Structures are given as structure tokens and as C-alpha cells.
Amino acid sequence: MYVENESGTYVPYNDTNLFPEGYALNLEKSSCVDTNGKKLENVLVNNGDSITITSNKTIYCYLYLDLI
After folding, report:
1. Fewest CB atoms within 10 A around its CB: which of 7, 30, 31, 55?
2. What is the pLDDT of residue 59?
3. Which has the closest alpha carbon to 62: 40, 22, 48?
4. 43's torsion region: left (phi>0), alpha (psi -120 to 50) or beta?
5. Rounded to an integer, what distance in angstroms lies between the CA atom of residue 59 and that of residue 19?
6. Does pLDDT of 49 surpass 80?
7. Is the pLDDT of residue 67 over 80?
8. CA-CA distance, 1 to 57, in Å (whole number)?
9. What is the full DSSP assignment across 7-32?
10. Is the dihedral of CA 12, 15, 17, 18 positive or negative?
11. 0.85 cut: is pTM over it?
12. Edge-to-edge strand list for the sheet holding 23-25
């Protein structure tokens, strides 16, 4: 997961709190890929307090959070 810092750069986020205070999920920049690197569409859903990832195969997701 990556969070936007004050200079607009995305940096890795390693905390256990899924949504750090003051940040919002950027669904346009976030994405998931399968094990072959193919980008998957419509697998990420933001439910406010959580993110649901819907897939029946092994995937890797890159989440980007924007500083509010």
C-alpha cells in the first residue's frame, strides 16, 4: 500500500491500520493484477471503513491512498 505525502509523492505504508487518518483510497490509481501480471478490472470496492477484493484466483493489489 502507498500513501501520498505532503509533497505529492506516494511512499510505502507499513502500518496495521488499513485507513490511516487523513487519507482516502484512490480507486483510479489503485489496481490488482493476476499472477501473470494481467490487470484485473472491478475487483476493488471501497466500503468506507474497509476494502473488499473480489476474485477467485491469486492476485496482487496495489492500493494508493491520497492525503486529504
Report:
1. 7
2. 93
3. 40
4. alpha
5. 21
6. no
7. yes
8. 20
9. TS-EEE---S-SS-TTEEE-TTT-EE
10. positive
11. no
12. 10-12, 2-4, 64-67, 23-25
What's the number of CA atoms in the CB half-sphere (13 Å) around residue 54? 7
Residue 18 CA to residue 7 CA, distance in Å, equals 22
The 10s digit of each residue's pLDDT in 1-45 is: 889 998 999 999 888 777 778 888 898 999 999 999 999 998 988
- Cell numbers linked to 55: 476474485
Q: From 24, 1, 22, 26, select the one nearest 13 (Cα to Cα).
A: 1
Burial class of 39 by CB neighbour count within 10 A (0 to 12, 13 to 18, 19+): exposed
Q: Do 30 and 1 contact (CB within 8 A), yes or no?
A: no
What pLDDT, on the 0 to 100 scale, is given for residue 64?
A: 92
Per the structure block, which three cell numbers stand in for 1? 500500500
For cell 501473470, what's the residue?
Answer: 36
